[in-house]
Amino acid sequence: MKHADWIAGGATVELNGRRLFVRRDGAGSPVTLLHGFPTSSHDWAATVPHLVAAGCQVTTLDLLGFGHSDKPRHHRYSIHEQADLVEALWKHLDIGPTALVAHDYGVSVAQELLAREPGRITRAAWLNGGLYADLHRPIPAQRLLHGRLGPLLARLTDERRFTANLRSVLAKPVPDELLHDMWTSMARQKGHHLAPHLLRYIDDRRVHFHRWTGSLERYEGPLLFVWGPEDPVSGAHVLERLRQRRPHAAFTVLDGVGHYPQVEAPEETAAALAAFLAG
Fold it and tell me: How far apart are CA 102 and CA 52, in angstroms?
């Protein structure tokens, strides 16, 4: 689905004084999808139709600072605030127990939600992300943006640099049009200038390491990990620990796939998620 069509199918909702882009698709068992950094809910465009066909009511949103949601400047973004907004959305939409699917930045939001109310999450699926802060390996551009020169480097970022950095974490070819959509969504309202502020999630992960890893490891509901082992950021080295810590979980390992399984291998990823969410 083209990015413009994706946006046309959603709406803007005001929550906690912020305006967030939200979509709802299908009817049936609730599932909430959380996207990663630095992209948006459009990452799930190829996934959603499969989940709807499997009998799910799918809720997707652009987190604060991303995509078509508000992008406040000089704001202290935090994973806890993002979790607050997801909870506010659930209340607004009258969503009770829900399945949860998360990728990259979204896995930390999901871990915080699990830490708060694990009984609300009926089942949880995870795509490549920093579930263990000590194993997270940010690419050089992220390390620079997270450092003292981050604000300057963010202003110098253009589509060419963005595309090169994104391709460095992919293991399979992705259409140029899709990468352009990712850039357009991020750069909306100069959102690429916010990268140093949003990258504070790296610090959040370190500070809340035990809370978030504990929420994952103590969770008693069904678990699925859909993983691209060729991911240089959160690939095979994270998968190895997950197999050790959650040996009874379900694993779908996508050979030859990198950091974005839902983009690099959309059919396989969607099939695995649909089967899992259908129970």
Answer: 17
Separation CA 184–CA 189 (nearest Å): 10
Q: pLDDT digit string (tens) for 58-96?
A: 999 999 999 999 999 999 999 999 999 999 999 999 999
* CATH number for position 269: 3.40.50.1820
Q: Which of 263, 102, 62 is nearest to 177 (CA)?
A: 263
Rg (the chain; Cα; Å) = 17
* pLDDT tens track for 229-248: 999 999 999 999 999 999 99
Q: 245 and 219 in contact (C-beta within 8 Å)?
A: no
Residue 14 φ/ψ, nearest 5 degrees? -95, 125
Is the CB of residue 99 less than 8 Å from the CB of residue 29? yes
Parent domain of 160: 3-277
Closest to 269 in 3D by CA, of 256, 253, 246: 253
Phi first, then psi: give them for residue 12, nearest 5 degrees.
Answer: -100, 130
Write down the pTM of the prediction. Answer: 0.97
